[in-house]
Amino acid sequence: MCGIVGYVGYQGAGPLLLEGLQRLEYRGYDSAGIAVLTPSGEIAIRKCTGKLGNLIACLQGDEMPQGVSGIGHTRWATHGEPSDINAHPHMDCRGDIVVIHNGIIENYRQLKRQLQEEGHTFVSQTDTEVLPHLLEKFLSQGNDLETAMRRLMPQIEGAHAILVLSRHEPGKIVAARIGNAGGVVLGYGEGEMHVASDLPAILPYTRHMAFLHDGEMAVITTKGAAYCRSDGTVVQKDSQIVPYDPIAAAKGGYKHFMLKEIMEQARSVTDTIRGRLSLEPPDVLLEDIPFSIEECCSFSRILAVACGTSWHAALVGKFMIEELCHIPVEVDYSSEFRYRRPILTKDNLLISVTQSGETVDTLAAMQEARQRGIRQITICNVVGSEATRVADGVIYTHAGPEIGVASTKAFTSQLVAFYLLALYLGKARGVISQHRMKELVDDLAHLPNLVGRLLEQDGQYDSLAQQFNQRSDFLYLARGVNYPIALEGALKLKEISYIHAEGYPAGEMKHGPIALIDKRMPVVAICLRDTVYEKMLSNIEQVKARGGLVIALATEGDEEIASKADYVIYVPPISHLLSPVLTVIPLQLLAYHIALQRGCDVDQPRNLAKSVTVE
Ligand code: G6P
Known about the structure:
Elements: E1 3-8, H1 13-23, E2 31-37, E3 43-49, H2 52-58, E4 69-75, E5 90-91, E6 97-103, H3 108-117, H4 130-140, H5 145-152, E7 160-166, E8 172-178, E9 185-188, E10 193-196, E11 208-211, E12 216-221, E13 224-229, E14 234-235, E15 240-241, H6 246-250, H7 257-263, H8 265-273, E16 277-279, E17 282-284, H9 293-298, E18 301-306, H10 308-325, E19 329-333, H11 334-337, E20 348-354, H12 360-371, E21 375-380, H13 386-390, E22 393-396, H14 409-428, H15 434-456, H16 460-468, E23 473-478, H17 483-497, E24 500-505, E25 522-527, H18 533-545, E26 549-555, E27 567-571, H19 579-597
Helix pairs in contact: 3-4, 4-5, 8-14, 8-15, 10-14, 10-17, 14-19, 15-19, 16-19, 17-19
Bound molecules: 6-O-phosphono-alpha-D-glucopyranose.
6-O-phosphono-alpha-D-glucopyranose binds at residues 307-310, 354-356, 359, 362, 405-407, 608, 610-612.
């Protein structure tokens, strides 16, 4: 989970960078670093693992590097020994440039191999380190920093936010944004410029802001910024005044927190993955799991407990764990588990899933397991919450604060956390071969980019919602790992639009819900090109035969479905186990736009609460 800040101006850069990083502290991280260009023309780097306080303590008095331009970074990683080496900023071989970065470089292995063959020496295990070396290569060919960045941008795959500083071009930061891994916001001051990943980092200094869009870069100096794309096309961009309303500022220009949280999912899933994935050798690093390999092998059964949207995440998690770890998983509502005296044995593992870590039923289920001596871990979003104190181990989702009552980004991060856990346990138990691990890890590394691509196609939901916003009932159908997404899609719609909606496994439709279908009934069908594709097509035919209206979620390139469904929303091709992370996003957006058009209070729906701390 990364926070990025940068400064060029006339004040001491070091203290300003630390202040900016402190304002991003809520995002969570486990190491931090700054780089400042000193008056003698050297780049002074200071990095420290652990809390930002550690870095601040190291930089007291004379230790603070002097200089009026610099960049700073907080990195989120849970694996290995706390590593100063892996903390950002990262340097090239000659110590000429320094880089900070948010994102996963999907093709970093081949870039690293190529750069090593060309003589570059790497010191860290990060993917980020290819960036300074690649820039070094372009700079050595006679380019300036801006041109080097322009040449770099098309070379790296994935979604990224990057800042770079060169000792040969003082008073300048070059920033780039590729895809949707994270924002880059520039703050205009008098004779100084700020840049950061998030608004709160620079709001205290200026309200004049400009935002980089996908594929854009900025050359930032004390006089302002010049914008272009990687092909050199100049981009005209004026700063806008961001009102100093902390709520509005926190909404980052979006009308609602829910929409902001939906739109930031490329970044939030990246933050869940960050530091936990090794591409070479392919592996998952979950330091948070407190069990030895032997203990992991000893679990004969997993029980998952959760409420609401988190319960749907647990249902998807069941598919992941059963397929990748060969451990049977039972999923319970926490409120049922706590009162039904479940049969538990010592070789069971309890997994609780909770965004807030404060949901009373889930905490009670955890207490029950604890009293009966069952080991447990929690998948949780809120650092230090009650659930994290009760469980033996915590997998933090690191999705960042979720304000909208209807859970969106926390859900997709929970799915990613389950996937990471399934890979970890599957490997420990010898179910996942090295070859399979590589495929599974590669699939996950590509995920943020696919989420970003899907979110770019958000223009279709407004008109789709207009067709349906006056309906009184909806049915959501899917099979297999996407069946819980049908439940989640229905829940999202009813939570925020107050339309009655039901989710069903499509195979069950003929045992009841089919009686409801007529021409007033929209049916949302998740029908990807997977093993149940033909079965889903038959279900769609059955709906159509009864006059129902079908909105299908289909795999990009599937033309057949367009002749069967009334509306098709396409999602990029993806492995079936990760497909729920994509399929839920159109359903979140559809629910949002329908609720908006019905005039509902999207962020605070009637009768609902974000944390349910009473029974
Ligand atoms: C409430 C919220 C839901 C959430 C559920 C479980 O009902 O409105 O969005 O899914 O609680 O909350 P938890 O924090 O345990 O995930």
